[in-house]
Amino acid sequence: MTPLEQEQNAAFAALDPLLPPIAPPHGASEPLLASVGGRRAGGLLTRVTHAPGSWPALWGPLEIWDLTAVPGDSGAAGLAALLGAWRDRMRGSGAGPDSGCTLAWPSRDDEASAVLLAHGFAPLTCLAVRPPDPPPGPGPARVPVRKAGDGDTEAITELRLAEWRYTSQVGTAVRRPGARPLLLAEVRRHLRFSGLAWLAEDEGVPAGLAACALASPVPGDSIHGRLPPGRWGYVDTLSVAPAARGGGVGRALMATAHRALLSYEVRGTFLFYHPANPLSPVFWHRQGYRPLWTMWIRRPAWS
């Protein structure tokens, strides 16, 4: 571990005790260096491209430059210098309209948030966590909830499709052709390999879905370097049909899902939500979640 990484880990630990040590990005990357006031700041820049018609293309730009920033004890000033160096590096990159620059940073660092906003970044997604014993909240609504099975594939796909369309307005999803077959394949995969999915029904009609899984951070996945080691419960999708919103369907689904996930003796549960969504931040905070990381994006990328 380099001295700069040691400085960064110490800064993270002081900021939020749940933050794990920083981890290098998965895949090929190139170094980015800057200095401010005699102090060094560094990072690793990774370029990722997604093919049109692929699953990742439903959830973001086709071309992404992602920075793992390590400003160390240079703090917000070092981060600002890194962003300036990143902007200079991107000049002449030829980045098109379907592109973005992304960076994940601890949500509690308000000084870094000010720097990112000043450089044209917007908060896109939050990774939020919930301890296994959160403070008590409002009780679940009396809504029938049952385990989902293979016979519910079409109903689940329609709920996920509705959620994806809504997220394209307030979050990461991108309206692209061919979404339904991709979502259908993902629903089938989830039912086969996870099976942790529940449906809420209103007189036999599907009113909502909670799709969950168990996850442990390993190198190369989206939570490595984001969560402490161990088994976690993951809330992948919560979708409530528009006509059923406000009636306690989401609370009933999550009461069932949390009870099932905690039976696996997980360290806690986590999920991703969109700060611009007018519904989900309030709901998830009332469910005992709090943001740990914020994923920022500048879209399109500097060019």
Plain-language structure description:
- The protein has 2 domains: 3-126, Aminopeptidase, CATH 3.40.630; 145-287, Aminopeptidase (3-Layer(aba) Sandwich), CATH 3.40.630.
- Helices cover 30% and strands 28% of the residues.
- It has helices at 3-15, 75-90, 110-118, 153-170, 179-193, 249-262, 280-286, and strands spanning 30-36, 39-49, 63-70, 99-106, 122-130, 145-147, 197-202, 205-215, 232-240, 269-273, 290-298.
- An 11-stranded mixed β-sheet has the order 1-2-3-4-11-5-10-9-8-7-6, sandwiched between helices.
- A hairpin with a 2-residue loop joins β7 (197-202) and β8.
- It is globular.
- The model has no long low-confidence stretch (mean pLDDT 95).
- Keywords: Acyltransferase, Transferase.
- InterPro entries: Acyl_CoA_acyltransferase, Bact_Acetyltransf, GNAT_dom.
CATH fold-level topology of the largest domain:
Aminopeptidase
Segments where pLDDT lies below 50 for 5+ residues? none
Instruction: Record the strand order, biggest sheet.
Output: 1-2-3-4-11-5-10-9-8-7-6
Q: Which CATH architecture of the largest domain?
A: 3-Layer(aba) Sandwich
Estimate nothing, just give the exact number of structural domains: 2
**Estimated share of beta-strand residues:** 25-35%
Q: Tell me about the biggest sheet?
A: 11 strands, mixed
The overall average pLDDT, rounded, is 95
Radius of gyration: 20 Å
Can you say what the CATH homologous superfamily of the largest domain is? Gcn5-related N-acetyltransferase (GNAT)
Q: How do the helices and strands follow one another from N- to C-terminus?
A: HEEEHEHEEHHEEEHEHE
What structural category characterises the helix and strand content? alpha+beta
CA-based shape: globular
For the termini, the CA-CA separation is 33 Å
How much helicity do the residues have? 25-40%
- Kindly provide the name of the CATH class of the largest domain: Alpha Beta
Number of strands: 11
Q: How many helices does DSSP assign?
A: 7
